[in-house]
Specification:
361 residues; alpha/beta; 3-stranded parallel β-sheet; 10 helices
């Protein structure tokens, strides 16, 4: 077999130079055991099964020679087809026990299409690390976000976290402690939340030395849209060390009265003296559903997805976007799709929510 020849002939010739290995589950044992890797510092473990993890993370030779002392960066893509999320919770516990010098841990590196998120069944996960600096992870609930920031990762300075939902946790979790070491925080959740003021803002206020912040959120609001004034009053004025702030925020509001509704120009004026970034504003009113939508975002736009594009889309170039959704009460005409194709040249997936037929095909 090719893998046998690779292990017996090629690896012995190059093992001293190898600094990083990306390994598929079925080949992990053979490749890690065949030679020593004195300069190895990074591992990517793909399609890892619980039994394979148990074997690797209890192997005394690997633990003493590589895992304990050498590995500082670990990537484990999550399989979205896995149904038993407790498997990944077990693997998490093993990781922080075995990789005691780990500084970088990434759970969602494989693809922007990978929507698998970790769901921790235990009310208080037991894993912790005194060395971890950077964590990139997708999880189901806001509860896990609070656990990650409860002091168990005391040196953590960068956290990228994507949530499936933002809802108040059912149990009380330590959420008052300051988080002075966190310098860079990225929070993303596409599902609409009505708990922004209750949950997100208090969390941000704990990050006393935050320098870089990125928010990708969809928020349900009651009286006013989230605009430049709101961001300055509720975020910028509370985080004094902030040097970079990017965002993609959609706020939805129920419309009781169609009088005095802010226009796109009104919202854009709230960003006239906004620091850090150029901002684009979009405002739409869906009278059939008595709903208003205000979409504000940093430009250039760095997200992989652009949600709820309407006929009022302001054009521009969005080379990083791979996934687009369209939504409007009015028909999307042929010319609109030409604009979309030009603005999103690398789009791979398009979804449409619209019940109106085209007038001009």
């Amino acid at each position: 077999m090719i893998i046998d020849q690779f292990c017996s002939k090629i690896l012995p010739e190059i093992h001293m130079k190898i600094k990083w290995l990306d390994l598929e589950s079925s080949f992990m044992k053979n490749i890690l055991h065949v030679v020593d890797y004195p300069n190895l510092y990074g591992l990517g473990l793909y399609n890892i099964e619980e039994e394979t993890a148990k074997y690797l993370f209890t192997d005394e030779r690997l633990i003493s020679s590589i895992f304990n002392n050498q590995i500082t960066t670990l990537i484990i893509p999550i399989d979205p087809d896995k149904k038993d999320w407790s498997i990944m919770e077990n693997i998490c516990n093993q990781i922080f026990t075995v990789f005691i010098n780990l500084t970088h841990l990434i759970f969602c590196y494989a693809s922007y299409k990978n929507n698998a998120r970790l769901l921790f069944k235990n009310r208080s996960p037991t894993f912790s690390s005194s060395s971890l600096l950077i964590l990139n992870i997708k999880v189901q609930t806001f509860r896990v976000c609070l656990y990650i920031l409860d002091g168990r990762f005391e040196q953590l300075h960068t956290l990228h976290i994507e949530l499936a939902n933002i809802l108040p946790p059912s149990e009380e979790i330590e959420n008052q402690r300051k988080i002075p070491n966190l310098k860079y925080f990225v929070l993303s959740c596409l599902l609409k939340t009505s708990s922004y003021n209750q949950l997100i803002l208090p969390l941000l206020y704990r990050m006393t030395n935050l320098e870089k912040l990125a928010l990708n959120l969809t928020v349900s609001v009651k009286e006013t849209f989230i605009d430049g004034y709101y961001l300055k009053k509720n975020i910028l004025n509370h985080i004094s060390q902030l040097k970079q702030f990017t965002f993609d925020i959609s706020s939805y509001m129920f419309i009781n009265n169609e009088m005095n509704l802010p226009s796109k120009e009104d919202i854009q004026r709230t960003f006239d003296d906004f620091p850090y970034t150029n901002v684009i504003s979009c405002v739409d009113y869906f009278l059939e559903y008595k709903e208003g939508l205000c979409h504000i975002y940093s430009y250039p736009f760095l997200m992989k997805h652009y949600e709820d594009v309407t006929n009022n889309f302001p054009d521009g170039l969005y080379p990083y976007v791979r996934q687009v959704s369209l939504y409007d009460e009015y028909a999307f005409e042929h010319e609109f799709f030409i604009r979309i194709a030009q603005s999103f040249p690398f789009m791979e997936k398009l979804s449409i929510t619209n019940r109106q037929g085209q007038n001009h095909k």
